[in-house]
Specification:
The chain is of the alpha/beta class. Helix content is 24%, strand content 28%. The relative contact order is 0.17.
């Protein structure tokens, strides 16, 4: 194993350095990129512009006819699109006046959620961008209403938000070839999660969104870390667990597993 050092912009113009044990072949792959310096430091990858912002993707209507998913833009408000020209979905910025919010948590951005800009730096697009059959974006679009049936939602209108607790691509998938390296993704994610400013950023965003329901659909090994922080802030009774949408929501796992705490 080799030591990989990574520079992280934890908040605007404030940087910290983390260190992760990685296989030698990963160092070799990373060394081909402009972001890799002095054979051991990854720079300018975790910067503010590469963060993937949280989005408001759907309106959800619940009534005696069932659950219906709608596009917020159909309601004629002065809404601000999120990266409209390159976004695979119709996403909007989350505004403070939104109420009755359902928050879906995905651990961190995937490969399709950032892209190189004209200056050669990665920029965030939006969460859950994949449109292929087993991708999260596609499966959320197709099966969200099925999953929400596992929650006793009262007849009302809700806003469906997609949120990454860590807004950087911790898998480094855009810099590496081949399949997702789960161990690398988890190790980098945990290093970032253990930075106080990163956790505080997440909790501040959740407070701003005023959720009625939180669906923790992060991968299994990372779920508990998020639950612990949310429960400390008093959200325990509105947390539900689901499987991560990618792949899982295409089969019998497209469901709510359990409610974290009973009322």
């Amino acid at each position: 194993m080799e030591k990989l050092k990574v520079s992280v912009e934890v908040c605007k113009d404030k940087f910290e350095e983390i260190s992760v044990d990685v296989e030698y072949n990963i160092i070799c792959e990373l060394s081909k990129h402009q972001f890799f310096y002095n054979n051991d430091m990854l720079n300018n990858f975790f910067i503010q512009k590469s963060k993937v912002q949280d989005v408001w993707r759907y309106k959800v209507e619940v009534n005696k006819k069932g659950i219906q998913k709608l596009i917020p833009g159909n309601f004629g408000r002065n809404l601000i699109y999120v990266n409209k020209q390159i976004n695979n979905f119709c996403d909007f910025q989350i505004t403070k006046n939104l109420e009755n919010n359902i928050v879906l948590l995905l651990e961190s951005p995937h490969k399709s959620e950032i892209k190189l800009d004209l200056d050669g730096y990665y920029m965030g697009i939006a969460p859950a961008q994949g449109k292929k059959p087993f991708d999260a974006g596609n499966l959320i679009e197709k099966h969200l209403c099925d999953v929400l049936k596992g929650i006793k939602l009262k007849d009302n209108s809700y806003n469906f938000l997609i949120v990454n607790p860590i807004q950087y691509q911790t898998s480094l998938g855009s810099l590496l070839f081949g399949k997702l390296n789960n161990r690398l993704r988890n190790d980098v994610w945990l290093k970032l999660w253990n930075i106080d400013d990163m956790r505080e950023c997440f909790l501040q965003r959740i407070e701003y969104y005023k959720p009625l329901v939180i669906i923790n659909a992060c991968t299994e090994k990372l779920k508990d870390y998020i639950d612990i922080e949310l429960c400390r802030e008093g959200y325990g009774k509105i947390i539900y667990h689901s499987y991560h949408p990618a792949v899982n929501w295409s089969i019998a796992n497209r469901r709510i597993i359990r409610k974290l705490k009973n009322d």
